[in-house]
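Structure, all two chains, one model.
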Amino acid sequence: NAGVTQTPKFRVLKTGQSMTLLCAQDMNHEYMYWYRQDPGMGLRLIHYSVGEGTTAKGEVPDGYNVSRLKKQNFLLGLESAAPSQTSVYFCASKGGGIDEQFFGPGTRLTVL
Amino acid sequence: GNSVTQMEGPVTLSEEAFLTINCTYTATGYPSLFWYVQYPGEGLQLLLKATKADDKGSNKGFEATYRKETTSFHLEKGSVQVSDSAVYFCALRRGGGTSYGKLTFGQGTILTVHP
């Protein structure tokens, strides 16, 4: 039982490049979330999903897209990376009727 | 909108000292309140929670009481250990069935405990 895993762990991009971050969970959770963590700002919600095939915008969605084609996977895409997207990205999942979110180990992204 | 404010850090303590990390919130209705902890190089994990006024959450020697009259959820521990060194986040989930579990986080407080 791996919990929530994220791929890759580290990535360096140049401005304008694109990439996809993968989040996978093996707990059969309905809800999945993407956050970014920046110094002094805590975690801010980018996008979330309440089930397979659904996505919704969070607090800071601009510049990101997401997809949830399979229940266990939640992908976060950056179409044209900008230095302002340099951050640590965390994925989380939650079962229905449970309060606790389970977090992945994070992806550290640097955009030059 | 909802918001969470934590005390400024970082906090540096000696082992066995008493810890308080202040957290206040702004929300309508009856939110649920959480403390998450992030150990170095890891993701966040739930430390404790409280879902209604006057509830006390506790875990691993940490406690926090949901105070609706002061809109606070301060984290306390009577005797900290070096292994408690981490970043602590206060968070809230809006009450009601349409929150979809979304959390609003405070900015985090870095705690360092020295031997």
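The interface with chain B takes residues 4, 31, 33, 40-45, 48, 50, 56, 58, 90, 92, 94, 99-106 of chain A (CB under 8 Å).
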